[in-house]
């Protein structure tokens, strides 16, 4: 992740760096965070905090946090992490760094969570109950056919150095199995089949260890009265088939661990005929920032000035607009092209800064903005099948996606956004909407209602 400039950017280079698409972390949250809850028209973010507040010590739950990829969930989760570090020992996990998100199973999540808790106990100079740990390690070694020798050989010198040479055996064992699951398909399938043969034992042993960790944590660190809070971010990046498998077929297993977990999920799962609220409590959805005035009978919507201003403030918080733009109107064009999607805004704005610098301009011009937006448009044009433009045109007219695989693909691929509040509706990504193929499909439907 790029390091942000220390002050608001006044040069194209600094402005480009300031528009890094990564989530805000640490001190950058305080410097650059903009509260968009009012213009998102949602209470989803604060609802997560309220659920965590309502939990008593030794009460656990699984909270689903969803929304489009890049809508700002990770930054909001970092805010939640910071808020609850006084009562929970928070463990923040980025799924794509730990598991194969293109082929993830719930058992993969189990192993990651247990390893992270074991690592955290080690950092806090705490240890699992010796008998519980021995029972788990013995059983786990038997089913995975690992030994102390095979595990020790797999631990790299660098990993040992990072932990001061004191990595607990359980961390080494789980780390090796994780690496195998992320690796060769054949080995992955063998391990998963072995674990799922005795899933009841796996769940029971992990919960015994989590319960022991909770007790040990509160005894030595009473300030963490509510125990561990696991934030499992970036699970919204799993493809629709994997999401369907995790959040529907194995929803019960995801909610069976004795710790509090916040799980991110792709927004496409909310649009399943299986009804996600039957598997989880009502999901907490982070929608797009609403920059439009909704008129259901129109495809080309007018803009909502309050929403436009709020989205523009994301850039204004990082960049001196007068210093790097020839006109404030150019910034507003970028905002409109974002559709209220935070990452898309950052990406096309950064592209505008890069384009201006490449063309030896001192400031961003209207042509630079147009070029940046067009490049985003072309990226989508390369990925959208021609036959789906008529479906997208229908969404523009109806303000709703079809409740099928095509609709879920539209949401997952960011061709269509969700807006909600008092009403829920969908609308086309602005860069998709301006493509010739989309406009032709829309014109055809209007001529042949």
Question: Nutshell version of this structure?
Answer:
The protein is of the alpha/beta class and 449 residues long.
Rg on CA atoms, Å: 24 Å
Strand-pairing-aware structural class? alpha/beta
Determine the N-to-C terminus distance: 49 Å
Give the mean pLDDT: 90
Note the topology.
Layout: H1 12-18, H2 27-32, H3 37-40, H4 44-54, E1 62-67, H5 73-84, E2 89-94, H6 95-98, H7 106-123, H8 130-144, H9 148-154, H10 157-162, H11 169-182, H12 185-197, H13 199-220, E3 228-233, H14 240-249, H15 251-254, E4 260-266, E5 284-286, E6 292-293, E7 302-303, H16 305-316, H17 321-324, H18 328-338, H19 342-358, H20 366-383, H21 389-398, H22 405-412, E8 416-419, E9 425-428, H23 430-433, H24 436-447
Helix pairs in contact: 1-19, 7-11, 7-13, 8-13, 9-11, 11-12, 16-18, 18-19, 19-20, 21-24
Model description:
It is a single chain. It contains 24 helices and 9 strands. The chain has helices at 12-18, 27-32, 37-40, 44-54, 73-84, 95-98, 106-123, 130-144, 148-154, 157-162, 169-182, 185-197, 199-220, 240-249, 251-254, 305-316, 321-324, 328-338, 342-358, 366-383, 389-398, 405-412, 430-433, 436-447, and strands at residues 62-67, 89-94, 228-233, 260-266, 284-286, 292-293, 302-303, 416-419, 425-428. The strands form 3 sheets. The protein has a 5-stranded parallel beta sheet with strand order 2-3-4-1-5, sandwiched between helices. Strands 6-7 form a two-stranded antiparallel sheet. Strand 8 (416-419) and strand 9 (425-428) form a beta hairpin. The termini are far apart. The relative contact order is 0.14.
């Amino acid at each position: 992740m790029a390091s942000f400039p220390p002050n608001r950017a006044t040069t194209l280079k600094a402005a480009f760096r300031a528009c890094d698409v990564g989530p805000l972390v640490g001190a950058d949250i305080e410097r650059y965070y903009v509260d968009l809850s009012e213009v998102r028209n949602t209470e989803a973010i604060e609802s997560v905090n309220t659920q965590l507040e309502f939990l008593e010590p030794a009460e656990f739950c699984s909270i689903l946090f969803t929304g489009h990829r890049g809508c700002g969930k990770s930054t909001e989760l970092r805010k939640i992490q910071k808020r609850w570090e006084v009562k929970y020992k928070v463990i923040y996990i980025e799924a794509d760094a730990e598991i194969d998100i293109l082929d993830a199973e719930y058992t993969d999540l189990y192993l990651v969570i247990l390893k992270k808790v074991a690592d955290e106990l080690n950092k806090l100079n705490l240890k699992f109950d010796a008998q519980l740990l021995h029972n788990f390690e013995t059983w786990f070694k038997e089913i995975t056919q690992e030994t102390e020798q095979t595990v020790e050989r797999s631990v790299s010198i660098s990993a040992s150095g990072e932990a001061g040479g004191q990595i607990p055996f359980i961390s080494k064992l789980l780390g090796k199995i994780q690496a195998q699951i992320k690796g060769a398909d054949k080995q992955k399938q063998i391990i998963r089949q072995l674990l799922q043969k005795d899933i009841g034992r796996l769940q029971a042993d992990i919960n015994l260890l989590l319960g022991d960790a909770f007790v040990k944590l509160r005894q030595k660190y009473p300030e963490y009265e509510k125990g561990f809070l696991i934030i499992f971010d970036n699970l919204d990046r799993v493809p629709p088939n994997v999401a369907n498998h995790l959040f529907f077929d194995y929803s019960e297993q995801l909610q069976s661990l004795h710790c509090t977990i916040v799980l991110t999920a792709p927004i496409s799962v909310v649009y399943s005929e299986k009804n996600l609220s039957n598997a989880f409590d009502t999901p907490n959805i982070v929608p797009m920032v609403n920059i439009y005035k909704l008129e259901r009978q129109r495809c080309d919507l007018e803009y909502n000035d309050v929403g436009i201003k709020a989205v523009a403030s994301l850039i204004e918080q990082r960049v001196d607009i007068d210093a790097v733009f020839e006109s404030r109107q150019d910034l507003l064009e970028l905002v409109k092209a974002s559709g209220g999607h935070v990452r898309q805004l950052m990406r096309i704005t950064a592209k505008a800064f890069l384009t201006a610098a490449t063309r030896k301009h001192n400031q961003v011009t209207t042509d630079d903005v147009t070029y940046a937006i067009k490049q985003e448009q072309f990226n989508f044009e390369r990925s959208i099948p021609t036959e789906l433009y008529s479906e997208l045109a229908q969404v523009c007219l109806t303000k709703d996606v079809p409740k099928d695989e095509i609709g879920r693909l539209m949401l997952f691929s960011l061709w269509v956004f969700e807006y909600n509040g008092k009403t829920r509706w969908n609308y086309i990504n602005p860069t998709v909407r301006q493509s010739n193929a989309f406009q032709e499909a829309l014109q055809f439907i209007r001529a042949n209602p």
